[in-house]
Design brief:
The complex is a heterodimer of chains A (about 90) and B (about 475). Chain A is of the alpha/beta class and about 90 residues long. Helices cover about 25% and strands about 20% of the residues of chain A. Chain B has two domains: about 120 residues, Glutaredoxin; about 325 residues, no CATH class. Classes of the chains: A alpha/beta (about 90), B alpha+beta (about 475).
């Protein structure tokens, strides 16, 4: 554990804030990340259907294995292609 | 009154260390005191010292020494009712007799011997003790990183970095940095744009740590921050402009050599810690305290590499010209910084001129290209004259003022050449320029410093901001105060 002194004017919280949750999905591109858990695709396919019915652009991604973090190129690809990501964490 | 319960509230206390010859000398006296009146002996370095005192107390953690504010060992203190009544340090028989109330002590010892510096005030130790005792006086928020978190990555993630790794600003490092100045950590140096937040000495010290500064650089960093936050410099505009500029810092006076700045070969380049980190600290202050970041309030189209750091020292030694700080009104010998809103470096290569008139023409012709040959008046400029070029003026007896006057005369363009469309270039001014002579630079708009290696007839021009002078940024000079 290390303790650092804040070099800023302390106008933002010490914990890095997450991006704000979008109020609407209209006009946004949603990524669906299948982490390769068994039957995760069943759930995510349904999400894909529901979002696509609403005219929302969906892009699908898949991790090669659930046991490791997503490879860097995949993370970079997702980061540049979508506004938010949905992933299924457990089977 | 001392905190804690482990200090005797009555009687004598001695603080010693084996590494001190005077403490070793007094060891028999301390043993004698134990027999005659009782004595609590705290040992700073070796728990087995002094052997003459079987009940000696281990203070190798130095908490008691710190609490007693020991500066010299041996120190002898007399307590009564939890209050310190008297103290002496070093060995002086009369003093020890006065404080202890005993007589005929250490008859075989010399009359007196000076003591040694106490271990608890050594650099690197005093900071740790202040932190452990909650005495840092630092007001900044503490940010706790997770056990598995990489400090360098965590600082990148929080947006504190200029793009290069930072030194983690721990309490210990910041305290050590603050030892470089006598100024109060909570003193406000100025309001830092764009957020117009008070920039305290402490916040600046944190950013100086991150930039890689040594504590002795801090006064220069503080002077540079003070200079850019001075109203005439217009730091908000310098940050927010789409043009290239950032603060260029020129250091004059004794401090250059004291902190080992480079004014000679590659003065504007890489490789010198003071040059590199002072300029970087200034940029980090604007970024982190002021909240000025590229593509946010910093609207620079291209920026320039000097926005990582742009700081160098003037080569005053051997120059026939007065230093920039003196020209700008400070007494000779005073350490000072001058900040200039500038960018990049345009070379002035002249290996043949051996008389000042020819060389002035070389400089003037090169200066015409600043911003655009079609634009006049243009921005302010800082000319960095290399020693071999300065020699030409020196041997001909040209003062800096004479060179400046000649440059202003030569940097005059006929209006016809500046009109939009002239030379087949749409950039330019109105037709009304016809028949007029136009100065390329405003009065006072050329600054001259001398720097660089002894070989090479290669000077340089640091371009400025189109909004130079009263309508934008003017150079500012500040004394470096310790």
């Amino acid at each position: 554990m290390s303790l650092l002194l804040d070099p800023t004017a302390e106008r933002s919280p010490t914990v890095r804030p997450r991006l704000p949750r979008p109020e609407k999905l209209d006009g946004l591109t949603v990524g669906i990340l299948d982490i390769s858990k068994p039957r995760g695709d069943v759930f995510l396919d349904r999400i894909d259907e529901r979002l696509s019915e609403r005219g929302i652009t969906v892009k699908r991604y898949m991790k090669p294995t659930m046991a490791r973090p997503a490879p860097l190129p995949l993370r970079q690809q997702i980061g540049t292609e979508v506004n938010l990501v949905i992933e299924g964490l457990a089977d | 009154m001392y905190r804690g319960t482990d200090l005797p509230s009555d009687g004598l206390i001695a603080v010693v260390k084996r590494d001190c010859p005077t403490c070793v000398l007094t060891a028999p006296v301390l043993g004698d005191f134990v027999q005659r009146t009782g004595l609590a002996v705290y040992t700073q370095d070796d728990p087995d010292f002094p052997e003459t005192v079987p009940g000696r107390i281990d203070d190798t953690m130095l908490d008691v020494s710190h609490r007693l504010r020991i500066e010299i060992v041996p120190t002898l203190i007399r307590m009564r009712g939890g209050q310190e009544m008297d103290r002496t340090y070093g060995w002086d028989r009369a003093e020890w007799e006065r404080v202890s109330g005993l007589t005929a002590i250490g008859p075989d010892l010399p009359m007196s011997r000076p003591g040694c510096g106490a271990k608890n005030i050594e650099p690197g130790i005093i900071e740790k003790l202040k932190i452990r005792h909650g005495e840092t006086g630092l007001a900044s928020r503490r940010i706790e990183l997770g056990g598995g978190e990489d400090e360098i990555e965590a600082m990148f993630d929080r947006g504190w970095s200029d793009g290069l790794p930072l030194v983690p600003p721990t309490e210990e490092r910041v305290l050590r940095m603050l030892s470089g100045t006598a100024r109060d950590p909570q003193e406000v140096i100025g309001l830092c744009p764009p957020d117009l937040v008070p920039a305290t000495v402490e916040k600046i010290a944190i950013n100086a740590v991150m930039a890689g500064c040594k504590p002795e650089y801090l006064p220069v960093v503080l002077a540079a921050v003070e200079a850019v936050l001075d109203e005439p410099f217009a730091m908000h505009g310098v940050l927010a402009t789409t043009m290239y500029v950032g603060p260029v810092v020129v250091v004059n006076g004794a401090v250059r050599r004291q902190i080992g700045m480079n004014a000679k070969g590659n003065a504007l380049g890489q490789g010198n810690r003071a040059n590199a980190t002072i300029g970087r600290a200034l940029q980090l202050v604007i970024r982190n305290i002021g909240g000025g970041r590229p593509q946010e309030v910093d609207r620079a189209t291209l920026g320039n590499p000097g926005k990582y750091t742009y700081c160098f020292a003037e080569d005053e030694e051997g120059s026939s010209w007065e230093p920039l700080s003196v020209e700008r009104g400070l007494p000779q010998g005073k350490s000072a910084v001058t900040v200039f809103a500038g960018y990049g470096l345009q070379g002035v290569v002249d290996q043949k001129s051996r008389d000042p008139e020819s060389l002035s023409r070389s400089f003037a012709t090169s200066l015409m290209a600043v911003q655009n040959v079609k634009l006049a008046p243009a921005c302010d400029v800082m000319i960095v004259v290399c020693p071999e070029h300065e020699r030409t003026f020196r041997t001909a007896g040209w003062s800096k003022q004479r060179f400046l006057t000649r440059l202003h005369e030569l940097c005059e363009i006929s209006g016809e050449e500046l009109i939009s469309g002239a030379k087949g270039i749409a950039e330019g001014g109105p037709d009304t320029l016809a028949g007029k002579m136009v100065k390329k630079f405003r009065p006072g708009g050329i600054l001259i410093v001398r720097a660089g290696g002894g070989a090479g007839m290669f000077s340089g021009i640091i371009g400025g901001w189109a909004a130079s002078g009263a309508r934008g940024s003017s150079p500012v000079t500040k004394e470096v105060k310790t």
